[in-house]
Amino acid sequence: MSYQENFQLGNLVLPNNIFYAPLAGCSDLPFRRMSLLYKPGLVFCEMVKMDALVRHDANTYRILDFEGDMHPIGGQICGSKPEIAGLSARIIEDLGFDVVDLNCGCPVDKVTKDGSGSGMLKTPELIGEIILEMRAAVKIPVTVKIRAGWDDDSIVAPLVTRIAEEAGAAAICIHGRTREQGYLGSANWDYIAACKKEAKNIKVIGNGDVFDADSAKRMFLHTGCDAVMVSRGSMGQPWIAEEIRRLYQDLPVNGKSVWDVRSALLQHLEAIQSYQNERRALLDFRRVGCFYLKKCHGVKELRCSINHAATTKEVFQLIQDFQWSDPF
Ligand SMILES: Cc1cc2nc3c(=O)[nH]c(=O)nc-3n(C[C@H](O)[C@H](O)[C@H](O)COP(=O)(O)O)c2cc1C
C-alpha cells in the first residue's frame, strides 16, 4: 500500500491513511487543533483508563475534550477487564468519537502490573475477549494498538492480528518495538510486515520511527501496511501529514522555514492559552516549545528564556522579538 485518500475503516471513510497517534501528556486539545490544520486522516486523544471512565472521573473526561470540527477523532481506552470494556467503549461512542481503540502497548509498570497496556500481550486471548465486548457495545469501528510482543522471546503480533480480526476489529496498529525495549533502539518493521501477511481483512497500521515523509514512504514499502501512524514525528511538526501527502503528489518537500516554525509556535501558544489556565498554559508551552525548537539552530537562548518566563504574554513577546535566522 501507499498513501491513499478516502480510506475505508469499518463503516467509516477517512480522508486519508496517515494517522496521528494517541500521545499521553501531548495529544491534548491544542495539539489536535494544530494537527488538524494539516489534515491527517485520523487524530487520537491520549489514552484513558476504563476504570476512570466508568466512574466518571472528571480529569479523564477533560482528556477527551474535543471541539465540533475536530473529526475524524479516535478515543483510546486502556484496561484489562472485559466486564467494563463494552461500557467504556460505549462512553467513547456517546461522547461523539468516530473510532474507539484498545491500548495494548503502554509499557509503564503502573499500567502493566494489572495486565493492562502491553501487559495484555501476555494474554492474547483476553485481547480478543475485550474486543468482542467493545464490538458488541458500539457501532463505530473498534481498533487495537499493540507492541510486537513483551520481549524478543515472545513476539505475538501476528497471533494478536489473527485474534483481533476474528473478534471483529477493523484495524490493528503495530508498534514495531517490544515492551522490553521501551522506546530504545529502532522499531522492527519486519514484525509489521508479518502482521500484514497474517491479516485477511483487518487493516494493518504501521507504527514506529516515522519522523518524516521519506520514512513514511519506507514504512509503506517495507511492510505493505494499509496505513501509517505517526507518533513522536507529529510532536513539534504537526505538518508531517501534509509533507507525506506532498511526497506522494510529487510536490517538493522542503521542510519548514524558521518563519513557519515561529508562526506555528505562536499559533500553538494561542491554542493552549485559550484552553488552559495561565499557570498550566505556561507549563504546557515549555514542553511544546521544546519540540518545535528541537531542529532549529541558534535558539538555545530563546528556549532558555521561554523556560524562565513568568507569563504566557511574556512568552509570546519573546517569540515575536527573537532574531530568527535561516537556515535551520
Ligand atoms: C510521550 C508519549 C506518549 C505516548 N502515549 C501513548 C498513548 O497514550 N497511547 C498509545 O497507544 N501509545 C502511546 N505512545 C506510543 C506511541 O503512540 C508510539 O506507539 C511510539 O512512540 C512509537 O512510535 P514512534 O517511534 O513513531 O514514536 C506514547 C509515546 C510517547 C513518546
List the helices and strands and how they pair.
Blueprint: E1 5-9, E2 12-16, E3 18-20, H1 29-36, E4 43-44, E5 48-49, H2 50-54, H3 58-63, E6 73-78, H4 82-94, E7 99-104, H5 109-112, H6 124-137, E8 142-149, H7 157-167, E9 171-178, H8 189-198, E10 203-207, H9 213-223, E11 227-230, H10 240-248, H11 258-273, H12 278-293, H13 300-308, H14 312-321
Parallel strand pairs: 3-11, 4-6, 5-6, 6-7, 7-8, 8-9, 9-10, 10-11
Antiparallel strand pairs: 1-2
Helix pairs in contact: 1-11, 4-6, 6-7, 7-8, 9-10, 11-12, 11-14
The chain binds flavin mononucleotide.
The site of flavin mononucleotide has 22 residues, from loops.
Descriptive notes:
The longest helix is centred in the last third of the chain and has 16 residues, at 258-273. The protein is globular. It has helices spanning 29-36, 50-54, 58-63, 82-94, 109-112, 124-137, 157-167, 189-198, 213-223, 240-248, 258-273, 278-293, 300-308, 312-321; strands at 5-9, 12-16, 18-20, 43-44, 48-49, 73-78, 99-104, 142-149, 171-178, 203-207, 227-230. With 328 residues, the chain is an alpha/beta fold. The strands form 2 sheets. Strands 3, 4, 5, 6, 7, 8, 9, 10 and 11 form a 9-stranded parallel beta sheet that branches. A two-stranded antiparallel ribbon has the order 1-2. It binds flavin mononucleotide.
